[in-house]
User: Which sequence fits this backbone?
């Protein structure tokens, strides 16, 4: 089936709308310097879901540096994220720690709002979270905001 000019116009509009929405979500410092947000992540060798989460972030224009380590828990501890909020990988985005399969838009919101917190976490590995897609199945999960005192509040819920 050939691609028509209407198809191209529709695709152009969708790409433009997506870029505009993303630009509104980016931290002002990134926009001012013309740079994409950077995430440094640590995961176990051979973890495909971690690789998929990195691709999810890249789809939202994050620059991702992946580091394969033997002990993700040791890095998590060094970064100051309590083990009870552990996912399968840990990352740093600016001054925040990101643990587990946190959606990119939630990281962008965190970076824009700049709360006093350790960071965000999605404990365990909920099916349907970014990097954990399994067909159409989506389990409900919560993204937690981890406070400086290691307490957690719900940042966003997904059902």
Assistant:
């Amino acid at each position: 089936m050939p691609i028509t000019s209407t198809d191209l116009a529709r695709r152009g509009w969708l790409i433009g709308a997506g870029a505009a929405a993303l630009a509104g979500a980016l931290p002002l410092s990134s926009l001012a310097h013309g740079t994409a947000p950077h995430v440094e992540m640590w995961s176990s060798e051979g973890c495909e879901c971690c690789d998929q989460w990195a691709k999810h972030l890249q789809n939202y224009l994050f620059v991702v540096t992946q580091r394969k380590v033997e002990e993700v828990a040791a890095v998590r501890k060094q970064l100051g994220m309590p083990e009870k909020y552990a996912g399968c990988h840990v990352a740093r985005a600016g001054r925040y720690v990101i643990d587990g399969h946190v959606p990119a838009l939630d990281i962008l919101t965190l970076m824009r709002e700049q709360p006093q917190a350790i960071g965000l976490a999605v404990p365990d590995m909920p099916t349907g979270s970014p990097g954990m897609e399994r067909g159409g199945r989506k389990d409900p999960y919560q993204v937690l905001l981890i406070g400086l005192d290691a307490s957690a509040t719900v940042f966003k819920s997904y059902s």
Summary: Residues 1-33 have pLDDT under 50 and may be disordered. The chain is about 35% helix and 25% strand.
